[in-house]
Design goal:
With 384 residues, the chain is an alpha/beta fold. Helices cover 41% and strands 15% of the residues. It has 14 helices and 13 strands. The strands form three sheets. A seven-stranded mixed sheet has the order 2-8-7-6-5-3-4, sandwiched between helices. A four-stranded antiparallel sheet has the order 9-10-13-12. Helix 1 runs parallel beside helix 12. The radius of gyration is 20 Å and the shape is globular. 50% of the residues are buried. Bound molecules: pyridoxal-5'-phosphate. Pyridoxal-5'-phosphate (PLP) binds next to helix 4.
Length: 384
Amino acid sequence: MLVQRMRPFTSTIFAEMSALALRTGAINLGQGFPDTDGPPSLLADAAANITGGINQYPPGIGVPALREAIAAHQARFYGRVIDPADVLVTTGATEAIASAVLALCEPGDEVVAFQPYYDSYAATVALAGAVLKAVPLRPPAFGFDPGELRAAFTSRTKVVLVNTPHNPTGAVFDAGQLAQIGALAAEFGAVVVTDEVYEHMAFDGRPHVPMATLPGMAERTLTISSAGKTFSVTGWKVGWIHGPSELVAAVKAAKQFLTYVSGAPFQPAIANALALPDAFYADLGSSLQRKRDLLADGLRAAGFTVFEPAGTYFVVTDAAPLGVTDGAEFCWRLPELVGVAAVPVSVFCADPDLGRTLVRFAFCKRDEVLDSAVDRLSGLKAEL
Ligand SMILES: Cc1ncc(COP(=O)(O)O)c(C=O)c1O
């Protein structure tokens, strides 16, 4: 019964791999959710809001305190002055992405995105009846070829979807790369929708550069982020999107008929959390960087080629040195082989050949869980 355009998207690899991990007792480094809760003050605030009666529909655009806190966060970290009236709270970044694409694309319009991509991008573009033009990011650095990027733009390009820091590759686009993307968007009259959910997870002293901070880009950019990643509450599904008033108004028109609103007790709690001291944000980055190193060393020792991520909480590896020729098949076997679950990068690609032997592991887990995964992986060569 399913409409044709959604048929390629009937199940997600994350649900399948998580189910497999559960069935086999494997350590789940497939799906990207932290195994510790967010800051205690955030949890306490949300609990108090629930028992204190903040449980009915919040305003359609989000509670004022949260919209103000999102604007203040942009000023504090990026020196940007944005009007809280131009901030729209959404049901996770996922709804922000979907609302933007649904609001801006007519059927047949084109969306440029980089592959591999977060899996909702392709499904959302399909829902809108739009056409995805996927530009490859290739190892080891997962940058793009400027010629391939230009070739993806046409007179039908409406939206460019950018994600930095990038899931799954861990690439962090620098100002030069963003400027190239921005220049093409301007030349072809496209809106840039930038997914910055990993904004506080850039490593080794690299800055996260928001697209909207580039000269001339604020006027054509919609910026998205989410509390789920920054505050380790992925199950709360509170995200946001902001940009020029007329673009946000368009996104709001689509968003209000998807979920209308969500997260009443969570929104004021997240407003407070956004104002946590600098130490919170610094610790988030440094603790993940240490976890990255722990897992990356273990994966190297186990025989993978490791492409060290510059950001996010994912590491992409190449399993080819272990004799693997199909990453998807390998990921189905890995839980049985050594008791660890991962996801194949091919599922994030329009062209599966691009990531044929690449495998993604998540490191947003407690140190003892990562230690035990590394220990299990050390036996992999013997099992293959
Ligand atoms: C790049 C990217 N965007 C968006 C999301 C989803 O964010 P949310 O849970 O806030 O909808 C994810 C989650 O994994 C992601 O990796």
